[in-house]
Amino acid sequence: MPGLLSSPVCLTVIWFLSWSLRPSCAQILTDEVSGVQYGHLESNVTLACGKSQIRIPVVWHLNHSSVLPWHKVTSDGSLVLMHVDHSAQGIYSCYDNQGLLLHSVKLRLGHPPGLLSVSCQVPNHTYVRCSWVESVATFLPAQYNASFRGSGQEWRPCVVDIVRKHCDVDRPAFWQTIHTLRITATNALGSETTYARFKLHELLKPDPPESVLVNELEGFPKRLIVSWTFPASWPLHDAFPLVFQIRYRPLGSMYWSEIYSEESPVVIFDALAGHLHQVQIRARDEVNAESQWSEWSPLLLARPWEVFTTPYPTEEVPPELFFPINTKPETSTAKSHNPVLEDEGSLGLVILLVLFSVVILITVLSLIYVMWVRQRRRDHVTKQELTSMVKMKSMPI
Amino acid sequence: MKLLLDSSSSLLFSLLLAQLPVFTSASPVPQRRPSDMDKLSNQTRNLMKLTQELLREHAFDSDVEPHRFRSLPEMGNRSANDLSNLELKSTLSQLHADLKLYEHHFEWLNKVSKKHHHPAVPKLVEMIREMKSLISLLHRQMQRVEAPRLTPATPSLPPHLPYQFDVLQSSHELLQHFKLFCDWAYRAFISLKPKVTAVQ
């Protein structure tokens, strides 16, 4: 085998093969970029013609064109681009005086990261999402590293989504006075760390209530029934009550009426008969008065029940309504929106009236009795007087 | 006799009239008596309201991380998930110890505020009174469920506050901290309510 390799025929074949392949390798190199170089916009950028220190005249091309932005070429063949702007970006290639490609590099221009503008969303007590926007347009891809902590706590990672530029913290220590988010943005030209402080209890803002429905109540031309569910992101637990604000108005009116309730459904008692109404609902943490109201739910349109052939029925709550409408609403108007309590009140009034009638009756009977006794006594006295007068008359003078 | 009859009739009438308010005030539906846990949560809410009022009335805009009080109850280890599996006795005992610690801090704050003639003093006095009332309510509840009483930690209080600014800053820090504690405690009481009912 060694004899075979050292044979002149074999050596000739190897030389021929290497010679014949050389131009094709050079062709590949022509289109190949050896790397990416990053530069600061509005500054001078130097591109070296490879690692060679040989002082040979070189020719630079930008994207295969000999037209270059404002520049100079140094004695070692480096290209110095003066006060670069975006148009200077591209693939730079340097060739020797025989047209042989020596080096090729892609130039990208931008700025190092600046401070970030951060905002956090707190849809419940167990989750925080912080988003950011760059205060400086860097024009370069960046990496982000984010951590989160409560006052006096250890840093915890905030899980970053680079594409959407946000990070998530699961189960933060919510009951802390101040929380800090630390984000370090890094790109090819540098890095910058931003610290943002938050009060989570003030940022707490539930998502809007869901499955909102507004329906008519058959037989009641001035009522609408509104039902909803807790936002899916809110924990369904006693420890996290929500208060809901329902607002409604006849279509075209400027003024909203409001009802507050902790439970669904709620009955609107003062709808305008025969009119379409706009209804919306929003939610807020019931315990923390410093938290924020959710956004309003989408506007819903509903019309109270209408009758065309029969006159309106009396506004009585049918017995079947007593059970499902177990609400404790408060309202900005003086009207009560609670049929159950209304009914309890009227029952009390009836009992009171009956008792009062009994009292009056007893009083009247007592008075009649007293009058009768007095009259009887008076009659008795008169009788006695007459008797005595008769006696006196019959007496001899 | 006439006089007697006259007076008896007026007496009868007066008696009947006197009964009227009794009839009118009597509610046909008996009011539900608030449970002890209701009282605890209501009292906590009341304290939270007082704290918020104090913070609002003596606003002190500060985003500086609090640092003066190192011995306040630790809130960093209490998460929302904990509220769904609270243990009755240990939670009541812990809340009692925490409240005792806050009581010490607020008594100290009241003392230094008086020294600096701070206008918040009357409300601070009211707060301490309400806090004591909550502590005693809580202690009664603990005795009922046989929850042990923990030894409260020794408070480490700032030694000397030379300026009014220091008092303001301390007050702000303490109130902010206590407001969040009340928020958590209120949620804990309402979460524990079914458990107390089950025990009793």
The most extensive contact between chains is: A-B, 44 and 44 residues
Strand % of chain A is 25-35%
Strand order of the largest sheet of chain A: 8-9-12-11-10-13-14
Range of strand content of chain B: under 5%
CATH class of the largest domain in chain A: Mainly Beta
Main sheet overview of chain B:
none
Structural class of chain B: mainly alpha
How many separate domains make up the residues of chain A?
Answer: 3
Question: What shape does the CA trace of chain B take?
Answer: elongated
Number of DSSP helices of chain A? 5
| Span between termini of chain B | 62 Å
Per CATH, the architecture of the domain at 33-58 and 101-200 in chain B is Up-down Bundle
Q: What's the alpha carbon Rg of chain B, rounded to whole Å? A: 24 Å
Poorly predicted segments of chain A: 1-6, 9-31, 311-345
- How many helix segments of chain B? 5
Query: What is the arithmetic mean of pLDDT of chain B?
Result: 81
Q: CATH architecture of the largest domain in chain A, please? A: Sandwich
Compressed to H and E, one letter per element, the order of chain A equals HHEEEEEEEEEEEEEEHEEEEEEEHEH
Amount of helix of chain A:
10-25%
Structure write-up:
The complex is a heterodimer of chains A (397) and B (200). With 397 residues, chain A is α+β, with helices and mostly antiparallel strands. Chain A folds into three domains: 27-110, Immunoglobulin-like (Sandwich), CATH 2.60.40.10; 116-203, Immunoglobulin-like, CATH 2.60.40.10; 210-342, Sandwich (Immunoglobulin-like). Chain A is 23% helix and 35% strand. Chain A has helices at 2-5, 8-31, 200-203, 319-322, 339-394; strands spanning 36-40, 45-47, 59-62, 71-73, 79-81, 90-95, 101-110, 116-124, 127-134, 143-150, 156-161, 166-170, 179-187, 190-198, 210-217, 220-229, 242-250, 257-261, 266-268, 277-285, 300-302, 330-331. In chain A, a hairpin with a 4-residue loop joins strand 11 (156-161) and strand 12 (166-170). The model of chain A is unreliable at 1-6, 9-31 and 311-345 (pLDDT under 50). Chain B has a domain at 33-58 and 101-200: Growth Hormone, Chain: A. Helices cover 68% and strands 0% of the residues of chain B. Chain B is built from five helices and no strands. Chain B has helices at residues 2-25, 36-57, 88-115, 121-145, 164-199. The relative contact order of chain B is 0.19. At the A-B interface, helix 5 of A face helix 1, helix 2 and helix 5 of B.
